[in-house]
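Students often ask why inverse folding is considered easier than folding. One informal answer: many sequences map to the same fold, so there is more than one right answer. In these notes we will look at a single instance of the problem. The structure comes first.
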């Protein structure tokens, strides 16, 4: 095959619906609502608000994605965000701590929560679904106790500016989201640690045989996820300028949906940062368009629920298709070097190669 044909094949794969379906879906959504409600949907203010409003959702989704790369679900992410949001408010209002100190302690608390969940999963040998679901219930009880199930008001001057300050028309949470995405992308895609994390998630037994410390990686991923969840909680409380005990848990479904939908984008079934970011904004655009045409408030839950089921189903289909293609290539009677076959799943790497690269 000539180099021209090879380049053309790579471009076809990169631009295929299977690889970037979210972009094509976004184009359809954008065109539809631009026609239906152009007087509101196309306003610059709507898009600025959408960019800022979803920044915290992206941060929460990244906090979910990191443990998932190592094979651990974190169903406590919403409770962690809510707990952090209340904690940073209580430390300021009831303990009279400077908000900088309160933020630092809240981030440490997030790391500790991640450590506890990691130890429960790895040392206690409890399934991550069950462990994080139980931890979620404990955290919800804790935030209700700290806040007496009421808003915590009277936050210190300057704290609100963290999430509301703008530079060149863009809010601070949006900048933090971009920086966080870049850092996590680099670690996962460009470092040996990231390759070992993917190996631990895809084939933990093989990764262990290759010398990868799967336990440490899973604990570390949950600690990182806890810190990121605490960051999201701090930003959420800063934006609202009050400790609100009900808002954090609501981010669980959008975050999970974005991560699984994002895994079907750009990386062929592998959890990845930019697919997650793309998924958040595609889903948010669809929900915003429906809201602008007068849809009921519950439409967002319905939209995210359907999208989550579809994304999980599609991600499983991606994995099955990749494995089927690998088997077909291995059979003696199939064509060799057939570039029309789907590529092998990016996460399907030899742990021995991953561990020593």
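Output (designed amino acids):
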């Amino acid at each position: 095959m000539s180099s021209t044909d090879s380049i053309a094949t790579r471009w076809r794969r990169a631009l295929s619906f299977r690889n970037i379906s979210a972009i094509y879906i976004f184009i359809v959504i954008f065109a539809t609502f631009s026609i239906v409600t152009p007087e509101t949907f196309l306003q610059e203010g709507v898009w600025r608000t959408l960019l800022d409003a979803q920044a915290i959702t992206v941060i929460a989704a990244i906090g979910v994605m990191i443990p998932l790369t190592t094979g651990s679900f974190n169903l406590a992410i919403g409770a962690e965000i809510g707990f952090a949001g209340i904690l940073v408010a209580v430390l300021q209002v009831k303990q009279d701590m400077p908000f900088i100190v309160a933020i630092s302690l809240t981030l440490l608390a997030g790391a500790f929560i991640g450590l506890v969940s990691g130890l429960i999963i790895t040392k206690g040998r409890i399934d991550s679904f069950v462990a994080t679901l139980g931890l979620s219930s404990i955290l919800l009880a804790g935030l209700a106790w700290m806040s007496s199930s009421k808003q915590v008001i009277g936050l210190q001057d300057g704290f609100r500016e963290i999430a509301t300050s703008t530079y060149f028309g863009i809010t601070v949470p949006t900048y933090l989201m971009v920086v966080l995405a870049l850092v996590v992308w680099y670690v996962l895609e460009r470092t040996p640690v990231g390759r070992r994390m993917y190996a631990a998630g895809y084939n933990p037994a093989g990764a262990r045989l290759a010398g990868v410390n799967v336990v440490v990686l899973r604990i570390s991923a949950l600690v990182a996820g806890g810190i990121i969840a605490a960051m999201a909680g701090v930003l959420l409380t800063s934006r609202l300028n009050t400790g609100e005990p009900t808002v954090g848990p609501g981010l669980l479904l959008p975050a999970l949906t974005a991560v699984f939908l994002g895994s079907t984008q750009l990386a062929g079934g592998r959890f990845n940062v930019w697919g997650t970011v793309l998924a958040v904004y595609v889903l948010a655009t669809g929900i915003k368009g429906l809201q602008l045409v007068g849809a009921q408030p519950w439409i967002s839950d319905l939209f995210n629920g359907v999208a989550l089921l579809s994304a999980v189903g599609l991600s499983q289909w991606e994995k099955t298709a990749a494995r089927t293609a690998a088997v077909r290539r291995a059979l003696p009677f199939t064509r060799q070097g057939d570039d029309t076959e789907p590529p092998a799943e990016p996460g399907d790497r030899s742990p021995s190669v991953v561990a020593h690269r």
